[in-house]
Amino acid sequence: MKFLSHRISWIEPSPLAKVLGRISELSKAGFKVISLAAGDPDPDVVPRKILAEISSYVIENIPGSVLYTPTTGVEDLRIELSKFIKEYDGYEAYPENIIITSGSTAALDLLIRILIDPGDIVVVENPSYVVSLYAFKQLGANLVGVDVYSDGIDTYTLEDKIRRLKNEGKKIKLIYTIPTGQNPSGATMSIDKRRHLLEIASKYDLLIIEDMAYNYVVLEGSSPPTIKSFDREDRVIPIGTLSKIMGTGFRVGWVVATDLIKKYVVSEKQPIDYCAPAISQYIAIEFLRRDVHKISIERSREVYRVKRDVMIRSIEEKIREAEFSKPVAGMFLMLRLPNVDGTLFAENLMEKYKVAVLPGKPFYTDDKGRDMIRLNFSRPSIDDIKEAVDKIGVLYRELKS
Amino acid sequence: MKFLSHRISWIEPSPLAKVLGRISELSKAGFKVISLAAGDPDPDVVPRKILAEISSYVIENIPGSVLYTPTTGVEDLRIELSKFIKEYDGYEAYPENIIITSGSTAALDLLIRILIDPGDIVVVENPSYVVSLYAFKQLGANLVGVDVYSDGIDTYTLEDKIRRLKNEGKKIKLIYTIPTGQNPSGATMSIDKRRHLLEIASKYDLLIIEDMAYNYVVLEGSSPPTIKSFDREDRVIPIGTLSKIMGTGFRVGWVVATDLIKKYVVSEKQPIDYCAPAISQYIAIEFLRRDVHKISIERSREVYRVKRDVMIRSIEEKIREAEFSKPVAGMFLMLRLPNVDGTLFAENLMEKYKVAVLPGKPFYTDDKGRDMIRLNFSRPSIDDIKEAVDKIGVLYRELKS
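Output (C-alpha cells, whole complex):
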C-alpha cells in the first residue's frame, strides 16, 4: 500500500502471537484447548480473591485509579517497588529512578529504542525470549547468540565471540540476559558466571540488560544474587515485572534507570501509551503493601514445583526419546524431540490435538531449536499437563512410525 | 552518553507530562493543587461504584482477566466495541478489524509508526492535541497547521495549502483531525466541513486519521456524523477510546484498520506492550454489556455542561479581558489572556497559586498560542473551577499592573 512508511520491515509475527490468536479462535469455536504456550501464571495460584477485593477497594476509594498517572508512574508504587526490589533483587533502586511500564515487554522495548542503532550487535543467550529477540530485530540490531547450559551461558565462549567481533571492528552495544529461570531454557545462571559476565561487560565496555521477569519464581533453593547487585559502574540496567506473581494481565513492569536514560525513556514513552494503566498501578501498590506478593510467591513456588515434576515424570514415562534439562526456576521447559520438525509438530499438535505449545526454533539465533518445542508448566492444571504430554507422545509416535 | 542511539532526537517533554509530574510532587509535599491540566473525566462522574463491582466480578470469575490477551485484544471486547461504534460513531467496524490499544494514545502512535517517513508532511489542526503533535514530531514528520474556528478548520485554506505543497513537490501523507470536541480548542467541525475535508483527502489522495476521543462527550445537541461514516474509499482511519467515559486510567483505546494496516500495526504492537491490559479489557466488556456507558455518557453530558457554564460565567465575571469560544463538546476551553506569556503564566499559576493549567503554545504549529492557556473543565469540582478562575484572574491582574 502506497501510504506505508519505508521504515517498515516486515517481521514474521512472534509464534506466541500466532498461537494465542489461534487458541482464541479455537476456543470461540467451542474447542477445549490446553495451552502450554504462554508465560502466564496459573490464574488459580494468583490470589484472585484478594486482588478482586483490592481492585474494588481501589476503584471505589482512590479517584486517581481511573485517571492518568505521571508518565513515570504513580509515586507510591515506585516507593513500594523500591522496597520490594531491595528485598528480592538485592540492589538499591531509588523511587525516582524507577519508571513504571506496561509490563517488562514495554520496559525492554523503551530501553532499546534509545540504545540501538541499526546494525548494532546485541549479544543474547541462545535460546532467548522470542518477543525480546523480535524487539531487537525490529530495531535493526544484529543478534549474536551464545549457547545456554543449565547453569547459564558459557561466559568463556561469550568473551571469545566479543573479542573476535571487536577485532573485526564491529560495534557491540549490549548483552541481554535473563539469568534466573531463563525463558525458554529454564536455566539459572551460576553466581560465578554472573560475576564473570559483569567483568566481561566491564572489560569490553558493554551494557547489560538484566531481565528479572522470573526472579520471583524460584522453585528450588534460594534466588542467586542479581548481576545488578554486583554492579558498581551503572553498567547493568535492570528490567522487572510483577506479571508472573500478580498476573500478566495487569501489565505492570519497570525499568530502573540513571537520570539520563530515564529522561530519554520517558520521552519515548509519552507518545507510546502516555502512562501504564492507573488501575493496575494502584492494585499493585496494595498488592505490595498488604504483603499479598509474599503469599503469591510462596504459592507459586510450591505449585509450580509440583507441576514441573508432574511434567517431567509424564515426559519420562510417555516420551522416552525426549531430551530436556530440569529447570530450578521459571515457568518453562525446552523439549527436544529428536528427528522431528518442532514448528510442524507444534502446528499439528494444535490442529489435531488442541494442545498449544511454541516451536523452539524462533527462540534461537541459529538452527539448534529446529527439533524443539517450549512447554509452559505454570498455567495448565496438573491433569492438563498429563493430558498434554500424553498427546505430545502420541503425535511424536505417529510422526516417527 | 556514548551508549545512546543516534536515532534519538531529543524533544522537549510535552507540557502535560511536566505539569502532571509537578502536580504529583506538590501533592506529595502536602499542597492542594487544583488541576485544570489533564483531559481526565471527573472521577465522581465515572460510575466508580459500578466499575468497582465489575472489576471485582471480573477478576474473581474470569481467569483470563489476569493473563495475557491476544495482541489484537480480547475478542468479546472487539464484538462489544463493534456494536458500540455502530451506535455512537455511525460506521461499520467488524470485530476482526478492531485492534485494542493502550488508550487512543497508543492507537495513534502505532498507526503513524507504520505510515510516517521522516520528512513526510502531516496536516494538523492548529491548535491540536499536544501529545499527538509530539508523536508526529518524534517520527520526523513536518507539521503543517490549518487554523481552527469554532466550526472546525477552514477547509478552503486547507485545500490551498495542500495544493501549494503538492505543487512544490512535497510529500503529504495524511490529515490528522479531532472533529468533535477538539482538543484543545473545544471546536466541533460542521457537517459541511466534514464532507469537504473528505473530498479534499480524496482529491489529493491523502489519508485522514479521525481521532474520536471526545465523540461521547457532546454537551449540546446531537453528535454530528463522523467523517468515517461518509467514507467509501477506506481513506479514513478511525481511532477511539473509552477513556473519557470509563476513565483514562484503564488505557482502553482502539484503531479500526484494514487487513493490511492491521497486519503492520499488530507487528509494531507486539514488542511495545504485547497486549493492552487484560483487566481493563474485561472491565470494558462488562461496562458495555451492562450499558454502564449509557449512564456515564448521560451523566458526563449533564455534569460537564454545568461545569463548562460555571467556568464561562466565572471567566466573564473575573477576567473581562479574556477571550475564548464556547465549546459544545469535549472537555476543554482555550483562553486568550491578551499581552501575557501563557507559558510563564502557567508556571507562575502553578508555583504561586497551586493551580495547574497547560500553556497554549505547545498546541500550536506557529506562535498563535503564545498568550493562551488551556483549561479543562471536566475533572475539577465546581468550587475548584470557581477558585481556579478566580486565581487566574488575580494573577492576570498582578501581571498587568
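Chain A has a mean pLDDT of 95.
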